[in-house]
Design goal:
Mean pLDDT: 93
Radius of gyration: 18 Å
Number of helices: 1
Largest sheet: 10 strands, antiparallel
Order of helices and strands: EEHEEEEEEEEEEEEEEEEE
Shape: globular
Length: 216
């Protein structure tokens, strides 16, 4: 990020970072923009804020998503899911990344069994990379320890989210990722404006969203 903005002394629990376009970003992303990312600490909750402003003279297309990682023993931890304050039971439908190393979405899906009231994590759960859960099936994910004690909850209004830990690494963490956009499907070959879950801003418009991390 190009610079750090500290708020006033009265807001010492709040910090903002700003990234604006440059010659370097134009090599990868052909739009003028201002991205502001903020972190606000209130009690036991951190709110992460995203503001994307189109400073170009043309329509801008973009995606944005979180990648927060949380320490845990992957083979002795669990996840629960909520929607509108109610526990999600039964199952969740999950899209799967193609196994060819492209990082693109396949046409395959699998079901995450929640009949036990939670999802048991393991290295095998992420053998096909990230679990991509679309269609707003949940708006809060809670991480539990081996005794199923709540550790933290990530809450969001995003249209989809990912659950991820590195394939085959037995990494001591899991990522719970609210997304406003995602990778393309393997057969996608269309224009940028036709990307699934993509976002659009007219010149001068701003996109503003946030998500929360609560530590129990």
């Amino acid at each position: 990020f190009r610079r750090v903005l500290f708020r006033s002394a009265a807001d010492e629990n709040e910090l903002w970072f700003v990234l604006t376009d440059s010659e370097a970003t134009h090599e990868k992303y052909p739009f003028a923009f201002r991205l502001t990312v903020g972190y606000r600490l209130e009690g036991d909750t951190v709110t992460v804020c995203w503001k994307v402003k189109n400073t170009d003279t043309k329509k801008m297309y973009f995606s944005i998503g979180g990648h927060p990682a949380f320490g845990c023993d992957l083979n002795h931890s669990y996840l629960t899911f909520e929607k509108n304050g109610q526990a999600v039971t039964g199952e969740l439908t999950c899209n799967v990344i193609e196994g060819d190393g492209s990082g693109c979405l396949s046409d395959r899906q699998k079901k995450l069994d929640l009949s036990a009231g939670c999802l048991a994590m393991s290295d095998a759960l992420f053998a096909e990379d990230a679990l991509i859960i679309e269609d707003q099936q949940a708006d809060a994910v809670t991480l539990l320890d081996a005794e199923r004690k709540q550790l933290l909850t990530v809450s969001f209004e995003a249209p989809l989210f990912g659950i991820w830990s590195p394939v085959g690494k037995h990494a001591p963490f899991v990522c719970i990722e609210p997304w406003y956009g995602r990778c393309d499907r393997v057969d996608f070959g269309q224009a940028l404006e036709e990307r699934e879950y993509g976002n659009v801003l007219e010149s001068g418009e701003e996109f503003s969203v946030s998500y929360q991390i609560r530590v129990w």
